[in-house]
Amino acid sequence: LGDRLADWLQRRGRRVAAPSGSAEEGFYLRRGFRPGAPRDGLALLDPPSSGTPARVGASVCLVDVRGGRVLMGRRLRDPWSGRTSFPGGGVEPGEAPLEAARRELREETALTAPARPWFERVVYAGDARQVLRVHCFVIPCLRVEAPTPSDEFAGEWLTPAQARARCLTPSAACVLDAVARWR
Question: Using an 8 Å Cβ cutoff, are 118 and 98 in contact?
Answer without folding.
Answer: no
